[in-house]
Amino acid sequence: GADLKFDVISALNIFDRCDEPITLLDSMVQHLHPVTGLLLVSIVIPVHASVEDSLGRWREPQQELPLPLYTKPPSFEQGVLDVARMLQNLGLRVLDVAQIGR
């Protein structure tokens, strides 16, 4: 139910493939324990948001992630800073950033 609170919620590589990523993020935050709750997020950088429909066609999501528009792909480091800034602007505190694989 809506009253359930969790210490950890993980969201691994879904925000760039979700039709309503801000709505999903808000819902996750609402279900985090207010004191001990952690949201573990992974996202592919650079971010290329798109959603696959039931027929296998790709389209733009209904909600856009509030990230800068680039004329060319950003560096990995700039992409990480932009995602961290986006999460902070949405009211989250970023505790750490890590790169996995390369």
Account of the protein in words:
There is one protein chain. The chain is 24% helix and 14% strand. The chain is built from two helices and four strands. The strands form two sheets. Strands 1-2 form a two-stranded parallel sheet. It has a two-stranded antiparallel ribbon with strand order 3-4. By secondary structure, the protein is an alpha+beta fold. The protein is globular and about 40 Å long. The termini are far apart.
In short:
The chain is α+β, with helices and mostly antiparallel strands and 102 residues long. It is built from two helices and four strands; from the N terminus they run E-H-E-E-E-H. A two-stranded parallel sheet has the order 1-2. Strands 3-4 form a two-stranded antiparallel ribbon.
Strand elements, count: 4
Structural class by secondary-structure content: alpha+beta
What's the shape?
globular
Percentage of residues in strands:
5-15%
List the uncertain runs.
none
Largest sheet: 2 strands, parallel
Number of helices: 2
Strand order, sheet with most strands: 1-2
Q: Which sequence of SSEs, written as H and E, runs from N to C?
A: EHEEEH
- How widely separated are the two ends? 39 Å
Rg to the nearest angstrom? 14 Å
Helix percentage: 10-25%
Mean pLDDT: 90
